[in-house]
Task: structure prediction
Amino acid sequence: MIDATTITAANAAADATLRADYDALGDHLARRGIDIASIKDKVAAYGIAIPSWGVGTGGTRFARFPGVGEPASVFDKLDDCGVIHQLTGATPRVSLHIPWDDADPADLLAKAEETGLAFDAMNSNTFQDQPGQAHSYKYGSLSHTDAATRAQAVEHNLYCIELGRKIGSKALTIWVGDGSNFPGQSNFTRQFERYLGSAREVYAGLPADWRLLTEHKMFEPAFYSTVVQDWGTNYMIAQELGPQAQCLVDLGHHAPNVNIEMIVARLIQFGKLGGFHFNDSKYGDDDLDTASIDPYRLFLVFNELVEAEGTPDFDPAHMLDQSHNVTDPIESLMNSAMEVQRAYAQALLVDRAALAGHQDANDALMASETLKAAFRTDVTPILKMARLEKGAAIDPVAAYRQSGYRAAVAETRPVSDGSGGGIV
Ligand SMILES: [Mn+2]
Result:
């Protein structure tokens, strides 16, 4: 963890400027009829989960260029996640990926306690083979043509639930790489039937207070078709399985220009929005840092979420899911968590009564301007004040760099092997 005096000293140097900026923004928002403290309190209460795999350097299909001091175990990953939460105050939970993070639940709980973290959704992995595995997933897992391979994939998901129960998780997220690479390779209908049959077996193993989140993805690793390719198929799965099954929306898993905020609205309307994997993309599933390409789209997603606040049983899981190829993953994850908070704060500023009036009056221009007025507001002082008040850093990246954390862990962690590719 970071020495608290580093954070305190950095905050003291920025304190006066922040208070001046915060007061000025407070006056500005008051003239718009908005109480800045109420926005700040909501931002302070907001938390987003970190994926354990996000703290390691990612890669493309071509190569991976690891940095120094890469985490070598789930416990190293939890240390890094603890630093992210310490500095941002925005990431109280970690989402584990099994078998990459498999460990004794007592040890996981002890480390979580030490780092001030809790566990979010469990993630299963049936998109790659593990050493000693009886049946290969080369041609699929939950939808495989071979019953024994499907049973093995079901068993793995049930194991993830069992481990998750012991560490306080309340959800299982399933993403499968199943699909086909050639037209004609797979019968779409029979393949999806097999998937549903397997998913029903996993669903039957859910504790009563758990949710099953299924994640759609348009393409890759199967390039011609994937079994759960879009939100339509995902919705069918959630409908078929039952009330504990909901859809997970990964922002990068859509074709360019798809109206993701509208998908979000549809899933909310029918009670099937289970959660998010936030990231950004330019061309495909790029897994770029959240809001690095299109912050307005992220804002529009949050506009739908704020619109739905107060809906009964509405509690989507929020997580980052991105690949850091050229940055320090801790810095990228801190920045991304803050960008998500920013989008949330901006969405809270939308004048919803005015927006509804413009919509009913068919005043398209003023409806759009109402959203833009919120989006254009620089809410940075609100985010900084929320961090300051909870003992986190006013400027997390600057405090992180001053702390020398990465160089310190590089002293004790083994040098990471850069061979092989793959987004992880
Ligand atoms: Mn994802």
Observations:
- Residues 215, 250, 277, 321 surround manganese (II) ion (CB under 6 Å).
- The longest strand covers residues 245-250.
- Residues 4-412 form a domain with the TIM Barrel fold (CATH 3.20.20.150).
- The longest helix spans residues 4-31.
